[in-house]
Amino acid sequence: MTTESDITPSAADRHHPMLKLALELGPLMVFFFANLRGQWLVERFPALSELGGPLFVATALFMAATVTSLIVSKIVLGHLPIMPFVSGIVVVIFGSLSIWLQNETFIKMKPTIVNALFGVALLGGLAFGRSLLGYVFNAAFQLDAEGWRKLTIRWGVFFLFLAVLNEVVWRNFSDDTWVAFKVWGTMPITIIFTLAQMPLVLKHSVNLEADGET
To answer: Scanning 34, 56, 64, 121, which has the fewest C-beta atoms within 10 Å of its C-beta?
Structure first.
């Protein structure tokens, strides 16, 4: 099994950017709509009632969609993207615990654990002189060393912020509000943050093809 490990984007990454995005967003959309229509799904497929309430049904379908997206990514792109791969492992483990123990806390804490893990990994990597963010954004752009360092710090802090934010939302609001926020809140926040980094990205971008010709 291979994961993205080269800062230089692969040909498959360059040729299938929308597929890569769909594979990452697809499971979240399944989770949202399965929770929204959980009762309808149980009525149409009575066997799903064995899983528990709507959130447990959504969790099971979320797990299935996540595993499917990873399999498609492996077949089409030839590797497993690091962030979805790690997130997928946590989804399967915590989703299984939630359904088995009929305890929603496990799946609700999944974003907290994943984001905290990424934040600590990015900032911890810098402490050892490693800018790990290049392994995550390898298909999007290439930066010089200073650019990766600054961007890694920003993303590390941002992931920790998302971890805290998830804790605040799931502990203080309803299940439906938390699920809606997970899809329609976290994603816009992440997009806005990503766009806000473009000046730094443009300032520190390097042209690998041009460098290779010199």
So the answer is: 64
